[in-house]
Amino acid sequence: MVPRKVGTDWEVLAPAKLNLYLQVQSKRSDGFHDLETLMVPVRLFDHLRWSPSNSGNTAPAAEIGSEGLSFSVDARALNLHPEQVTSLESSENLVPRAARLLATRIGCPPRGHFQLTKRIPLQAGLGGGSSDAAATLRLANACWNGGLSEVELTDIAAQLGSDVPFFLQDGPAVCRGRGELVSTTSGLPKMHFVLVKPPLGLSTAAVFQEVAALPERESLEVDRLSKLLETLQIGAVGAACQWMTNRLEAIAAQMAPEVLRIKASLRAAGCWGQMMTGSGSTVFGIARSATHARWIARRLTAQRIGTVFVTSSGW
Ligand code: C5P
């Protein structure tokens, strides 16, 4: 998303993502796993605003360094525990970390106030923190006149997290390496989703830690990713769902059995396909239309198995 100037402030939206395909290959010597994934940004957004000074902000702001940089979070939409809010507001949040890294790279002291409004659930596999980091890089590069190119921003993004480079480009992409090698994909149709985030969130590191316990993959497995992309590119969303897969789902379902219950509910509601995104714990269903998505959402909300969102692919 492109940052927008509003008076003396700047603002930008940070979208969530869904993984329509996620295959984990081998564990690397740096502790990360090589993977191949198809990610799609969706229309569920955090909002980030930068002001030249903190005057006028009502929320308490954490001073995050001697530099005159401050940061506050409004997470009222998420119903978090107080300790989760404290952790979000810490100087280790990816927003101040990204701002400090960018400032160092462009050689100017970081300054002003970042206000983050959270709508994307935490520990959900939706990439909220990574998207906030990418939004910060774009925003700070704009408001501090950094003049860094997308390639230079991508270099900083990869230091912040495996998914951050994906959010620096606007659209679906196949990501490889530990996630930071991004190939933009074109020609995917609009898709309508229902997301269900169970109360229990999952830590990405904890889920990846269990990968070694998974059974070996079939060596003659068909190239599901190519099939998925080809089928989506001809607009056959329903048929494409048979090629979706997420290697981390079985692990996550051991830690959060709600994942399987939500999948069953989405299937029973007539979704074309349903799967967990990323390292979980959110499960998404692919609906036939926006109307169908709203109908499924009402049904799932009544079942009280998690927080329900209706959204669509957006770029
Ligand atoms: O890169 P990011 O900070 O999002 O990763 C969080 C954790 O997830 C890592 O510390 C690592 O344990 C695990 N991970 C992994 N392989 C990846 C991405 C993440 O093992 N490709």
Automatic annotation (TrEMBL):
Domain GHMP kinase C-terminal: 235-302
Stored InterPro entries: GHMP_kinase_C_dom, GHMP_kinase_C_sf, GHMP_kinase_N_dom, IspE, Ribosomal_Su5_D2-typ_SF, Ribsml_uS5_D2-typ_fold_subgr
Keyword Nucleotide-binding: yes
Tagged with keyword Cell membrane: no
Domain GHMP kinase N-terminal: start-end pairs: 93-169
Signal peptide: none
Sites where the protein binds ATP: P121, L122, Q123, A124, G125, L126, G127, G128, G129, S130, S131
Entry-linked Pfam families: GHMP_kinases_C, GHMP_kinases_N
Identification of the protein by name: 4-diphosphocytidyl-2-C-methyl-D-erythritol kinase
Organism for this UniProt entry: Bythopirellula polymerisocia
